[in-house]
Amino acid sequence: MTPETALQKAVRDRLVESDIVSVLVPGASILDRNERPAPSPSIIIGEGQSVDEGDSLDRNRVTVFLDLHVWKKEPSTAGVKAIAGAVRTAIHSGRLVLAEGFHCIDASVQSMRFLRDPDGETSHAVVTINAKVQEVA
Q1: Number of domains comprising the chain
Q2: Which residues contact 86 (CB under 8 A, 6 or more apart)?
Q3: CA–CA separation, 70 vs 50, rounded Å?
Q4: Considering the entire predicted model, what is its pTM?
Q5: Is the peptide bond before 41 cis (omega within 30 degrees of 0)?
Q6: What is the CATH number of the domain that holds 65?
Q7: Helix (H, G, I), strand (E, B) or coil at 87
Q8: Are 129 and 48 in contact (CB under 8 A)?
Q9: Closest-CA residue to 77 (of 41, 43, 29, 115)
Q10: Which of 32, 71, 122, 130 could potentially form a cystine with 110 if both were Cys, beta carbons 3.0 to 4.6 Å apart?
Q11: For 1-137, where are the alpha helices, taking DSSP H only?
Q12: CA 13 to chain centre
């Protein structure tokens, strides 16, 4: 398993188990797949990036960025803003527990963007999570 996959799994588990998120988005609609149109409402685990940290001679730390795409059929952005806020609360509620071999040093919501889909019926938010992950023996 990679640090990116370990983080993705931990984030999905956190969101599915979070009461504040699940009241807005059912766990079955928190997905890792590319689907258009996305279920409404939904959280789609999207793009990511990882950057090796050069501050350790062990070279066992990486910063992982993970985008979550929030979708909801609505005329405003109020619903996706509420879901994104619930995601932030869930991520900040405690240390993420990663798969064996990885330790989450820190994780936070780095940014949230709110957009209107060109279809005129759907709102979209992009929530970017920034996590420092260490590989452990």
Answers
A1: 1
A2: 18, 20, 21, 23, 24
A3: 21
A4: 0.91
A5: yes
A6: 3.30.2000.30
A7: helix
A8: no
A9: 115
A10: 130
A11: 3-17, 19-22, 78-91
A12: 10
